[in-house]
Design a protein that fits this description.
CATH architecture: Alpha-Beta Barrel
Distance between the termini: 21 Å
CATH superfamily: Aldolase class I
Number of domains: 1
Bound molecules: iron/sulfur cluster
Structural class: alpha/beta
Number of strands: 7
Strand order of the largest sheet: 1-2-3-4-5-7-6
Length: 252
């Protein structure tokens, strides 16, 4: 048995995606947004030793984890005390990659290859990109960070290749919506050659390999959003079934 545990480092974010309710509120959990305290992180991690099931750990729920002022220290500590996978069996990171330096990329890849743990402990980094051109990025993501994000992810991929590191796998996510559907093919053409034989998916990635994931938008007119998503994915060559909803029950 396994259990997914999210320890949210922060509910703050550094951009304002139009499709994200978190970005439109001053509070995300009914109280002012915060950054997790060191002692909270430390106690929560050590508490995982008492969990009998295999823990799949993610340091994220609503906000952007990498903007925590001590993000690197927090993650390095988690791996340092996880010898023999005694606290968590798998780890995944979700990020918008706005704050993702080469030093941070090297740190994360080093942690993924740390000895004393199962080699596939650091399963994947999920980069939420959602645009190809800088202009569309600025509109969809509410901040002019498109080229910065592209450079950061490209640098990460180049470092992973240079170090010949099999882990973590990478997911590049693209929430299909009226403002970006027209450049989904450009996004795919740009990123596919930079990943390692990537899978192409219209549903939540389930394979342990690099994936380009075109996600459906959650919104008020769900039928229309799902139609646009299905049409866009089919235009990219995916065999999308007919149906009201095209994603697995566990997708989010
Ligand atoms: S990066 Fe994530 S948390 Fe931040 S606004 Fe976008 S979807 Fe919301």
């Amino acid at each position: 048995m396994s259990i997914h545990i999210n320890l949210e480092l922060t509910d703050h974010c550094n951009i304002k995606c139009g499709m994200c309710s978190q970005s439109m509120r001053d509070d995300a959990h009914g109280s002012p947004k915060k950054f997790m305290e060191w002692d909270t992180w430390r106690h929560a991690l050590h508490g995982l030793a008492d969990v009998e099931d295999d823990v799949h750990l993610c340091p994220h729920w609503l906000g952007e984890p990498t903007i925590h002022p001590d993000f690197d220290k927090f993650i390095e500590y988690a791996f340092a005390i996880n010898m023999g996978n005694r606290l968590f069996r798998e780890f995944k990171l979700h990020t918008n990659a706005v704050v993702f330096s080469q030093a941070r990329s090297k740190l994360l890849i080093r942690l993924a290859n740390a000895s004393g743990q199962a080699e596939d402990t650091f399963q994947f980094i999920h980069f939420s990109v959602d645009a190809h051109s800088p202009e569309v990025y600025a509109k969809v993501k509410g901040a002019p960070r498109g080229m910065q994000v592209r450079n950061n992810i490209e640098n990460f991929l180049a470092i992973r290749d240079a170090l010949d590191s099999p882990w973590p796998k990478v997911t590049l996510a693209y929430v299909v919506q009226p403002g970006n559907a027209h450049e989904a093919a450009d996004f795919l053409a740009h990123w596919a050659p930079l990943l390692r034989n990537p899978a192409l998916s219209y549903d939540w990635p389930s394979q342990q390999r690099d994936t380009i994931y075109f996600r459906p938008l959650n919104c008020g007119d769900q039928a229309e959003a799902d139609r646009l998503h299905a049409d866009t994915c089919r235009a990219l060559g995916m065999d999308v079934p007919d149906g009201d909803r095209l994603r697995a029950a566990e997708s989010f």
